Amino acid sequence: MSLDRTVPGRDVLLFFPCSYSPPFPRIPSVDSLASSSAISLDKLLDAGLYTGEVTEIVGGPGSGKTQVCLCVAANVAHGLQQNVLYIDSNGGLTASRILQLLQARTPDEEEQSSDLALQLSTQAATLAGALQRIQVVRAFDIFQMLDVLQDLRGAVSQQVSSSSGTLKVVVVDSVTAVVAPLLGGQQREGLALMMQLARELKTLARDLSVALVVTNHMTRDRDSGQLKPALGRSWSFVPSTRLLLDTGQGAGASGSWRMACLTKSPRLPTGLQEMVDTRTWGTPVQSPALQGGHM
To answer: Pfam family example for this protein (predicted)?
Structure first.
């Protein structure tokens, strides 16, 4: 199914046709984890993404920010069998991209079965179930973004049960696309809107007990000329965890390697680094078993 048919604002598109019920069930307020689908990144995230918090993925163009988000969505939908809301403000997300990642996570579960038809049917059902759990909405300005988040809060408050699992992760890719046009000069209203969005994201993560992932671009400091996360100091207080993807040193001949650096964390020392290969982000990793309040 092509995402070209998605419409801005409140209309949500599923990657796979099914009967859609917007409300999500409320899930317990615990610090559970959702794997990022990359072992090296999970090391920097202290085992994975935490619910109740905002995690920010920062990087320049082509650094792999969207790839991380898609792998998170695929892993949660397929491995954890829980729902993901993906808010796309770049307009570049395609169904084929997420489908490819999900197919990599759909093994030949009936390898020893002599019934090929049964094997294919099982694989198709597994894939369809995962596709149904990933819901995508496009929001191309901050007002549409705020509408989507408000609608989500209202849907969860209805506490209508869903047979396809609970909402585990909300992805905003990217927050810069809707905020940056409002900033600069004497646009005080833009700063106020950015802080309104910041408050909504933080309270949504806490109140709904979801892992909220946002992507942010890089910009150059006017004085030093060095690259830094966009949106300024006021925004830097929004994410609990910030992960920087760098395409510079160690990128490799193929250009698939990234240096991931932890620049903000409530649990681990900052400055930790891991080399990651974007080509392996689509391969499945074993999700941590549910133990106490962790996943």
So the answer is: Rad51
